[in-house]
Design brief:
Elements (H helix, E strand, L loop, with lengths): L1 E2 L2 E7 L7 E8 L10 E12 L4 E14 L3 E13 L5 E13 L2 E13 L3 E11 L2 E13 L5 E13 L3 E3 L3 E6 L3 E3 L2 E5 L2 E5 L4
Antiparallel strand pairs: 1-2, 2-3, 3-4, 4-5, 5-6, 6-7, 7-8, 8-9, 9-10, 10-11, 11-12, 11-13, 12-15, 13-14, 15-16
């Protein structure tokens, strides 16, 4: 698939053991997509394994990206490796700089998951401004996905937002989140110069 000097290619097959599907995008100039588009996107996706236990490897980079509606990103890098196997590596990384979307402007955004499906750590941080007021966000958690359904169980060890409207988690927060329910343990926060006590919630 080609549009001007941009291309999207796919090669191989997927679904049975031994299959591998590879897709690549090379888009050095997004302007031909229409008004409001500009910048570059380059990446690769490898899909192997089976439908019951897929294995995904992906890398994607973009620079000077602009989208209709005023959203723009100076640079973003994404890499990921994931599998349906509970003990296989699960590694996701997203780093972005110069993000502008409506009233939000972020100089830096980072998000990472490292470990396995059954046991991993999540870390995130961001420096941004909202309505021209600066904020810093930090988050850390550890846990795992259970069963074949979306069922994450773990503990949030760090949750803080500093700035005009600050919030800070004072004790570890246990959480279980599935498609059917969310369960939280008791937690204490500082909020807007005061304190907030959250009773356990199910």
């Amino acid at each position: 698939l080609k549009l001007a000097n941009n291309s999207l290619t796919a090669k191989g097959a997927w679904g049975n053991a031994g299959d591998r599907l590879t897709a690549q995008i090379a888009a050095p100039n997004l302007a031909p997509l229409g008004m409001g588009f500009s910048g570059t996107i380059n990446g690769r996706l490898d899909l192997s394994g089976t439908t019951k236990s897929p294995v995904i490897n992906a890398d994607l980079k973009t620079e000077r990206l602009s989208l209709p509606g005023g959203t723009s990103i100076s640079r973003a890098d994404f890499s990921g490796k994931a599998s349906g196997d509970a003990n296989a590596p699960l590694n996701l990384s997203l780093k972005a700089q110069g993000v502008q979307a409506s009233a939000v402007s972020a100089s830096n955004i980072e998000f990472a998951i490292n470990g396995t499906r059954a046991s991993h750590r999540i870390n995130s941080q961001a420096s941004f401004s909202l309505a021209q007021k600066p904020y810093q966000f930090n988050f850390a958690a550890a846990g795992g996905l259970f069963n074949t359904q979306i069922d994450w169980r773990g503990q949030i060890s760090r949750l803080e937002l500093t700035g005009a409207s600050g919030i800070h988690l004072l004790n570890p927060l246990n959480i279980q989140a599935s498609s059917q329910r969310v369960t939280l343990s008791a937690a204490r926060f500082t909020l807007l110069g005061g304190s907030l006590n959250l009773e356990s919630m199910a």
